[in-house]
Amino acid sequence: MQMPLDLPERHVLTVSQLTGLIKTNLEDAFYDIWMEGEISNLRIPTSGHIYLTLKDEASQIRAIIFKSSARNIKFELKDGIHIICHGRITVYNLRGEYQIVIDAVEPQGIGALQLAFEQLKEKLLKEGLFDTKRKRPIPLLPQKIGIITSPTGAAVRDMLNIINRRFANVHIIINPVPVQGEGAGLEIAKAIAEMNEFEDIDVLIVGRGGGSLEDLWAFNEEIVARAIYNSRIPVISAVGHEIDFTISDFVADLRAPTPSAAAELVVKNKQDLLDNLSHLFLRLRNIIKGAIDTKRAYLRELIRAVKNPAARISEYSQRIDELSMRLANSVRRYLDGLRKMADAEAGKLNALSPLAILSRGYSIAMKPPSMQIIKDAKDVQKGDEINIRLHKGEIICVVSRGKS
Q1: Is the pLDDT of residue 154 over 70?
Q2: Range with the lowest mean pLDDT among 69-78, 90-99, 104-113, 269-278?
C-alpha cells in the first residue's frame, strides 16, 4: 500500500516534557486556593513534614504540610477531622502526581484555638495534671510572694496595690515576662522554673489581665501547664476576667477569677487578722478565768475542811450511818421477799408430795427387793413378803391370800 506524501509532522513528547507542561499549567492556575475535606492517611515522619489525604464523598487528593508551616498549627491534626485549608497545587515529577501544598489550616465548624484548647485539656486530664488530690493549700500567711506577669500591665499594679493595702510588710518578687505573642509561653514556663530556685518563696501568682482567646493563649500552652504542675511552690492562676478559663487554671493549686482577686486571696487583711486575734484573746482570757474561779472555789472548800477536820469527819460518819441503815433495810426487804417466795413454792411442792397423801390415811405397798410399787393383786403370790409404807413408819407383811 502506498503511503500518502502530505502527512503532518508528528510532535512526540517525552514523559518528563508532558509532566512539565501539566505542572506549569496546574501550578499557574491553582497557586492560591482554599479547599475543604476530611483528613485520612495522616503520617508525620521524623522530618517533621505532615503527609495526608484530603477526601470527600467522591474524590481525594494528596496533601503535604511542610515543617515550617506545621509549627503554626495550634491544634492536633487527626484522621477524621474536617478542615478548611489554604495552599497551592504542585506536581511531583518523580511520580507524575499532583498534590496540594498546605500552608494554613483551620478546623471546620470550630475555631482552631478552641479545638486546640479542648484537645490539650483532654490530654492533660487523662495524665492526671488536673487531679484535685495533688493540689496544695495556699499558705495562710505567706512571707514572700512571687508574681509572674507583664511588668507594664494594669494587672501587676492592681495586685501590688491590693497586697500593700491588706498587708504592707509582705515581701514581693516580680519576674517580668511577656504574656502574649510568639514565645510568651516559653518565657512564662522559664520564669516559673526560676522562681522555684528560691528557697523562701511561699506562693506564686501567674497571670495577666483580660483579653481575647488569642491574647490569653500563652496560658493555654502545654509547656506552661507542665511548668505549673512541676512547681514545688503552690501556684495561683490569675488569668483574664472571671468568665475566662485557661489550661493554667485547671493545673494550678488555686484559680483566681482575676489578678485582683488573686491578690485578695493570697494575703489576709491585716486588720481582720488583728481583730480576730483580739477576739480569740478575749475568749482565751475568759476560759482561763473560768478555770481559775473553779479551782479557787475547790481550794476554799479544802481550806474549810482543813480548818475543822473533826466536823468534816462527823459529817461523813453521819452520812455513812445513813447509808448503812438504808442498806440494811434494803437487804431485809429483799430477804423477806425471797422467804415469801420460797414458802409459796414449798406449799406447792407439799401439795404434790406422796407424803402428804399418806398423812390422810393412805399407804403404799412395795415388793422387795426392787421395791416396786404394787398396783395389782395379781402382782403378788401367797407367801410373798411385802413392805407397807405408812405416814409414819413401815410394816413388813407376808401375803396369806390374795383377792383381785
Answers
A1: yes
A2: 269-278
β-partners of residue 387 are 366, 396
Torsion sign over Cα 367, 368, 369, 370: positive
Q: Which residue has the cell 481583730?
A: 275
Could you tell me the pTM of the whole model? Answer: 0.52
What is the number of other CB atoms lying within 10 angstroms of the CB of residue 160?
A: 14
Give the pLDDT band of residue 57 (cuts 50, 70, 90): confident
